[in-house]
């Protein structure tokens, strides 16, 4: 099935994947596409809106892994597994639409179409590299490094360059940032306060402006990875 109203905005590989979609559904803020542990039968392409991918630990704390928006694939890690189950949560944080693909149908399509399979593997490799670099920051750089690298990634994904710095153009609470960092909200609040006092950032109605991104990069010995891997998406 082809959904022509979306095709012009999609890359070749996503356009081909969309051919395997069964339907388009409306997604509402606060709902879930799936939650970890549930049997996995479908994969999704986000056409509009935003979906947050997260993992919950044994204590019930949430670690936000990425924000998915237009043209992003969700639920892909369940492909080609026996008794597939979702390993993450996919929560809708902005109304929109997603294309729904049956996993078994998609697997058959990948087997039949070598070019599509190659493009999908390339996409998966890029996604894994993004995930590995994020976990590297979280594990090796401690709480401060986790927050600072998250701010850099948010600037790359949602930053708007202004005269006074880079404005992260999505509202973020201290708890949102804590979830991305895998740490307590109180720790994030203290670190943000220190950055505000040093005029490195400012916050206005949950919108963060980074005035000195070079300071943040220097503090964590930023390797200046390509932006396509150093982002929050």
TrEMBL record:
Superkingdom assignment: Bacteria
Keywords noted in UniProt: Activator, DNA-binding, Transcription, Transcription regulation
HTH crp-type domain ranges (all copies): 141-214
Keyword Cytoplasm found: no
Gene3D superfamilies: Jelly Rolls (2.60.120.10), Winged helix-like DNA-binding domain superfamily/Winged helix DNA-binding domain (1.10.10.10)
Pfam families to which the protein is assigned, alphabetical: cNMP_binding, HTH_Crp_2
Matching SUPFAM superfamilies: cAMP-binding domain-like, Winged helix' DNA-binding domain
The Cyclic nucleotide-binding domain, residue ranges: 5-85
Cited CDD domains: CAP_ED, HTH_CRP
InterPro entries: cNMP-bd_dom, cNMP-bd_dom_sf, Env_Response_Regulators, HTH_CRP, RmlC-like_jellyroll, Tscrpt_reg_HTH_Crp-type_CS, WH-like_DNA-bd_sf, WH_DNA-bd_sf
UniProt name for this protein: Crp/Fnr family transcriptional regulator
Species for this entry: Cytobacillus spartinae
């Amino acid at each position: 099935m082809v959904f022509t109203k979306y095709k012009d905005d999609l890359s070749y590989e996503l356009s081909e994947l969309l051919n395997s979609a069964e339907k388009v559904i409306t997604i509402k803020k606060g709902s879930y596409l799936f939650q970890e542990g549930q049997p996995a039968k479908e994969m999704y392409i986000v056409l509009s809106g935003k979906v947050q991918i997260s993992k919950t630990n044994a204590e019930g704390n949430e670690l936000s892994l990425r924000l998915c928006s237009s043209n992003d694939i969700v639920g892909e890690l369940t492909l080609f597994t026996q008794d597939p189950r979702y390993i993450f949560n996919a929560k809708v944080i902005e109304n929109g639409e997603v294309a729904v693909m049956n996993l078994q149908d998609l697997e058959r399509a990948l087997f039949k179409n070598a070019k599509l399979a190659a493009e999908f593997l390339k996409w998966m490799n890029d996604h894994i590299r993004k995930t590995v670099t994020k976990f590297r920051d979280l594990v090796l750089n401690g709480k401060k490094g986790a927050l600072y690298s998250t701010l850099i990634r948010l600037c790359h994904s949602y930053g708007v360059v202004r005269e006074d710095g880079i404005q992260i153009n999505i509202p973020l609470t201290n708890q949102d940032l804590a979830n991305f960092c895998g740490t307590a909200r109180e720790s994030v609040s203290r670190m943000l306060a220190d950055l505000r006092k040093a005029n490195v950032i400012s916050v206005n109605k949950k919108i963060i402006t980074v005035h000195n991104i070079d300071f943040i990069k220097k503090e964590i010995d930023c390797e200046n990875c390509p932006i396509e891997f150093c982002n929050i998406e």
